[in-house]
From TrEMBL:
Family (UniProt): Belongs to the class I-like SAM-binding methyltransferase superfamily. C5-methyltransferase family.
Gene Ontology biological process terms, A to Z: methylation
Native species: Alkalicoccobacillus gibsonii
Entry's Gene Ontology molecular function annotations: DNA (cytosine-5-)-methyltransferase activity
Catalyzed reactions per annotation: a 2'-deoxycytidine in DNA + S-adenosyl-L-methionine = a 5-methyl-2'-deoxycytidine in DNA + S-adenosyl-L-homocysteine + H(+)
Annotated InterPro entries: C5-Methyltransferase, C5_DNA_meth_AS, C5_MeTfrase, C5_meth_CS, SAM-dependent_MTases_sf
Gene3D superfamilies according to UniProt: DNA Methylase, subunit A, domain 2, Vaccinia Virus protein VP39
PROSITE patterns: C5_MTASE_1 (PS00094), C5_MTASE_2 (PS00095), SAM_MT_C5 (PS51679)
Protein name: Cytosine-specific methyltransferase
One Pfam family it belongs to: DNA_methylase
Amino acid sequence: MLKVLDLFSGVGGLSLGFIKAGFDIVLANEIDKTIADSYKKNHKNVKMINEDLTNLEVESVFKDLKGNIDLVIGGPPCQGFSQKGSRRLLEDDRNFLFRYYYKVVKYLKPTYFLMENVPNILTSGDGVFKDEIYMLFQDLGYKIDSNVINAFDFGVPQVRKRAFILGKLSEKISLPTGSNLNTTVKEAISDLSYLNSGEGEEIQNYRMKPVSLYQLQMRENSLKLYNHKATNHSVVALERMQLIPKGRGKEVLPQEHLTKSIYSGTWSRMIEDAPSVTITTRFDTPSSGKFTHPYLHRAITVREAARIQSFPDTFIFYGSKTSQMKQVGNAVPPLLAEYIAHSIMKDYKQKKLIKIRNEI
């Protein structure tokens, strides 16, 4: 079984996808204690290092993995890419955390590596970040493929575009280009569409049966429903949502209900028969984006957001609600991760088979 190290792991969306594809995650690293605890509770067989990777001495921390890791995965944080202007981008240290990821890859020299990040990492600063990443890893002997991938093209009920950089020692391997699966918001969460504002418990029974293949997939082996608790909205917020019919948004609100917001889709309902917009870390607030339920007067719950991110119902989010939203909103959709993992596994098995044939 191919052994994997997950850096900057978050709650483990990438890890889960690779586990489902048959990989063995042996070690993960996450700086946030609550998120690291949530990772550990969902991945009980994985050792977790809850530290700032930039403070770790690579040679001492990862020495036991030397020669025993086939793949390094991870998504170095990228907060600085929200800034405007090439100079400010280059002056922000947060944009260069990929260098620490590189140091680990350089030391372990796995056969493969997979880096996930915001799409801007491939274009910002006139390509300076992409150029440096390519140069660093090519100097180690890796052949690289990179692309911006939309999770919706892989069956995830969400338009979520992220950059992936995939490398392999000596030979090039290509990222997958998509599947024939498309999933809508309705197919993802309609079996959970019954809570009103302020209702629900952290642990409860299912009230409705699954009505789509996606819901069946998400509910497999789940006996209880977790994290399905609706935000207790204010009276004013409820008044606004009640004025917005299915498929509409703030354009129907009277002047006295219009608010200033920097977020696209503010006070807009999700469209049932379409994918969701990108799930962020503020999906419990109607003013923060297109996160109002398709027809109920509330924002989506943590569990509904997790469904839209393709986390199965057996995956439980722990900690405060703010932390749970961060765990869900920052994760790589496990279903997308699984497709990428399968493409790597396929490449490995093909090369292994060729090697066996050549030895006969």
